[in-house]
Amino acid sequence: MMNRDFLVFGMGMGADHLHYIGCTERALGDQAGIVSDLTNSSRGDIAQWVRQAGDSGAISIFEIESAPSLENARESAQFWCQYYKLLGARVVSDLS
User: Fold this and answer.
1) Of 27, 29, 60, 73, which has the fewest Cβ atoms less than 10 A away?
2) φ and ψ at residue 67, rounded to 5 degrees
3) Can you tell me the distance from the alpha carbon of 59 to that of 32, in angstroms, rounded to the nearest whole number?
4) Residue 35: which of 68, 4, 58 has the closest Cα?
5) Which of 8, 4, 18 is nearest to 59 (CA)?
6) What interhelical angle do 44-56 and 31-41 show, nearest 10?
7) Per-residue burial over 60-71, b = 16 or more CB atoms within 10 Å of its CB, e = otherwise
8) Tell me: the pLDDT tens digits for 25-37?
């Protein structure tokens, strides 16, 4: 049985801007795939933001952590989203 990790990631426009936290089975190096997945499967406001950020060329995706299962990855992404909101950041997620 192959062990697959899930990526918990943050996304923003530039190094100092965090807008979205999510999770994926894709590797961090497959940023085009991550962007495509979000554009095609996220809520309207998130998909629109991802399209605009991608079109501007300023999109930045970074790893927060990895998780051993999709359930753990979703819980972790929700935790980090709430954490950054408590710090005053305007972070969104489509995991709720």
Assistant:
1) 29
2) -135, 150
3) 10
4) 58
5) 18
6) 140
7) bbeebebbeeee
8) 999 999 999 999 9
